[in-house]
Design brief:
- There is one protein chain.
- With about 200 residues, the protein is mostly helical.
- It has one domain.
- It contains eight helices and no strands.
- Helix 2 crosses helix 3 and helix 3 packs antiparallel against helix 4.
- The longest helix has 30 residues.
- The radius of gyration is 17 Å and the shape is globular.
- The chain starts with a helix and ends with a helix.
Length: about 200
């Protein structure tokens, strides 16, 4: 359910067309370059992150994290279906795009918070960054930030050299501001709900 919610929210953030987060923008830029659907590119990148975890962790790789692969595929399928089969209407309002982006980001946050509170299967990128902490003497949040910086650098180079549309924009900044606080709020809410359900 969490992955489906994230997929729906992400599709709407793309439709808003005001920019998305660095890692997500990488899929959007590659879509402009190759014509491959965004969700499919997301599947490829995420599955590559899972194989990266396997290579780094080897015997320490938890078997349950194999589920990152089918969940990454599910995420990509949801994104493709919502973006290309449901959101087929034209949309070019900047103000409306900002509103849509904020609402869609909150939808994504709900899905991410649910996944993080359940703490069973991680997102592929976060799992890969966490695996890198085993071989690089840096904390998780630093490596995760470097992943975003790397994505932004690749996007800028591709956009300048290949003359493709910018996939980063004001939405990228808005996401950086609201995602973290919203995630904290929803995680606390879901933790209370789950604890209440378990106690019952």
């Amino acid at each position: 359910m969490g992955f489906i919610i994230v997929g729906i929210g992400f599709a709407f953030t793309l439709k808003a067309n005001v920019g998305v987060g660095a890692w997500d923008a990488l899929s959007a830029s590659l879509n402009s370059l190759t014509g491959i659907e965004v969700g499919t590119l997301g599947m490829i990148l995420n599955i590559a992150c899972v194989f990266g975890q396997m290579i780094i962790l080897r015997k320490e790789f938890k078997l349950i994290q194999i589920l990152q692969i089918p969940f990454s595929i599910l995420l990509g399928i949801v994104i493709n279906y919502v973006l290309y089969d449901i959101l087929i209407f034209p949309f070019d309002s900047f103000a409306g795009g900002i509103v849509m982006y904020i609402v869609s980001t909150e939808i994504c946050v709900i899905g991410v918070a649910l996944i993080m509170v359940l703490d069973e299967v991680t997102f592929a990128l976060e799992g890969f960054c966490n695996a890198l902490t085993k071989v690089i003497p840096l904390q998780f949040h630093v490596i995760r930030q470097f992943a975003d910086i790397f994505s932004l650098v690749v996007i800028i180079i591709m956009t300048l050299l290949m003359d493709i549309p910018w996939s980063i924009g004001v939405g990228t900044v808005i996401g950086m501001i609201i995602f973290g606080p919203s995630l904290g709020m929803f995680m606390k809410l879901f933790q209370k709900i789950l604890i209440k359900e378990i106690s019952v």
